[in-house]
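Researcher: Here's my situation. A collaborator sent me these components and asked whether they could plausibly form a single complex. I don't have experimental data yet, so a predicted model of the whole assembly would be a useful starting point for our discussion.
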Amino acid sequence: MADVMAGTTAGTASEPTAPVVAARSLTKAFGGVLALDAASTAFSAGEVHCLAGENGCGKSTLIKILSGVHPPTSGTIEVGGSSYGHLAPRQALDLGIEVIYQDFSLLPNLTAAENIALPSFLTHRRRFVARAAVDAIAEQAVARLGVDLDLRTPVGDLTVADRQLCAIARALAHDTRFLAMDEPTTTLTWREVDALFDAVRRLRDDGVAIAFISHKLQEVFSIADRVSIMRNGRIVATGRPEEYTHSSLTESMTGRATSALARETPTWRDKPPALEVRGLERLPLFTGVDLAVGQGEIVGLAGLLGSGRTEIAEALAGVLPATSGTVLVRGRPTRIRTVTDAVEAGIGYVPEDRLTQGLFLDQPIGDNVLATGIGSFARFSVTRPQRMARAAAGIVHSLRIKAASLQDSIRTLSGGNAQRVLIGKWLIGRPKVLILNGPTVGVDVGSKFDILSLLHAESLKGLGVLIISDDLPELVSTCDRVLVVRNGRVVSEVDRRDLTEKALLEAVAA
Amino acid sequence: MSGAPSARSLLAVMGSRASFLRLLTITAAIVVVFGVLRPTVFLSTSNLQFLGLASPELALLSLAIAVTMLTGGIDLSVVAIANLSGIVAGTVMIASGGSAGGVVAGSLAGLGAAMLAGAVNGAIVAGLRVTPILATLGTAQLLGGIGLVLTGGTAVKGLPPLFTDVARSTVAGVPVVFLLLLAVALVLTLLVSRTTLGFRMRMLGANPVAARYSGVRSGRVLVSTYVTSGLLAGVAGLVISSRASGADADYGTSYILLGIVVAVLAGVDPEGGYMTVAGVVIATLALLFLSTGLLALDVSSHVVNIAQGALLITMMVVNRYSGAWSRAVRERALVRIARPRRA
């Protein structure tokens, strides 16, 4: 297959001849809405085709239908010229269709080599596993990808970026013709993203048709040969990235005009800061951390992965308490040894990993929203269902969470709505400080804008907000100032006046 | 969403899942089938009274297990706790000479011992972070041993008639112990669905990590859970010793497995996050209906075991696959609803 496509040059977006995989009027009703509405598109060999759009726009559904996870309600799937009403997952795999989901679906106890070689053992129906064969398959795939990966290490011990490369190598190991990547960069740092893009380009030049799902515009522009924009289950536009600008792309995705999150600094200087921290320490994670978040102020916390930024936040949230240091909430000294202490002091924490740390996936939306504040909806420990329902409905309504019923489980929600539930869970208890770790990770552009405006609106009411993020444009557009963390210390501060992406990047990477 | 009591909210308290409706259907089917096949025996007053007398202890033990399952745990020590409760209660009653005050004091002592045993379970699970299945297996062994030491290996006999009469008495033909079960079930339903403890137990079982990040004090919740479980087992112990006119450290070991069967049959999620009190009571009755029905047909008691096992496996298989099936039907219906609006 590689030979056939050898003539394809990078970046050609001329009308492709025969697509590797094509969707023909695919429709899917799912979870209460029409998730996909007569979507037609094609993925050609040697082309990176970006699917961009808000969460719930149907990107993931489209990929899941193409890979056989869901049968379509109507429409057909074309693979290599043949038409299918639906595909079984195994059948899709045999046809060379591979998807890398956000969790990579790797087996943590097995080594990288075993993970890479396993699917090709399955597709070739081999029952006995020979060590040498495993290594050979894995080495070949990694070499083709042009990356350096320790094949003997159990996948559980690899970094996120290496796991991602491992998942891509696995896809390569069994003649993948079509590779879909679902938001592959969400958990990667900038440098890791560059390495990933190199691997993706090499795959493309090898003749693989690539579907790249992303809502980060920067990525769409740097990797895509073709971009399709989806909205409400439909493909609303397809074209070459050069035909778009940042704002025209955003407008196509959201269906509404963009407006900057410009804000006047509303910090109430005459009041004690919402949060003041002095000399916070927990060795070896962080030491001598001083920071302050004014009432009505939004402060960013930037730093590379492993710099200690998450640990500082978790210490303030009581998850992994600090061993020494002073914490004042609105001027009142508080000791934070448990999460409950933090809750009682008025500190809310929206954790990094929404699915495992934040939400109760199979429990009703209403109960998720009330999980933290349940105590205030009870008299002598007896809960008051009417009040609970009213409060939950109120917060769901005011945060514009799209849900059919409070009784529905969180699983029925899109990423952006689930994140709003998580924020609502804290807002319902009226915290004085809200710390958010990666508040818009895995959230689409439209929802991202909504979530950031929501934080903006809450801060105007006096809430102190501390945002930890990898997303520099987000920090620049949202924060009043940004603190930079390195090696467990706050090393510098970028003030509103100097707050640009470039300045921030320099401060973080210095 | 208005909060007004509706059929939906009632069903949510009883058991919100489709598995609950299936359980009702199967129970009704068992009653109808045996009612038709052997009406004179199966529907006789004596059979129903036997059920009313035999079901409370199994139902209470199953509830004791189900409560811990709600938090994602399990309690294998419920039978040992029940026996200990009976032994302590009986010893105190005999020592106090069978007076009314002695019966009350003995019962309270038995329940107190049961709650203490539950607290020990909770401390080991929450404080020492031992897996519940191992922790309670250990305490089951420990408490069984303590029971043997207390009784010297023989049954506690000669309980005061005042106490043993409770199991024999009826109100309007219904055994008092069955009414006791209904009362306990009602209180437990309220505990699970209408208190902060019940809410937190459910959240802890659904996702312990998220519960921690939400400020749920898991230690407190777990200790309360195992104390509740112990109390339920203690009540079962009193029921058993009243009915059997004695207490024994070795009584009813098969109840542990049967209790787990009942809980799972009721649709309680062993992974945590869901339980139904009404479902457990009904599942107990279904299991006993099935066995007395088969015995009324004069089959061997081994066939009863086979039938109970088959019922459990059938329910699990049906629950597993019907979910996917009903989702597919719902989705297809939604397309039909969603389509015209867009046209």
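Model: Some features of this prediction you could bring to your collaborator: Chain A has 17 helices and 22 strands. The mean pLDDT of chain A is 84.
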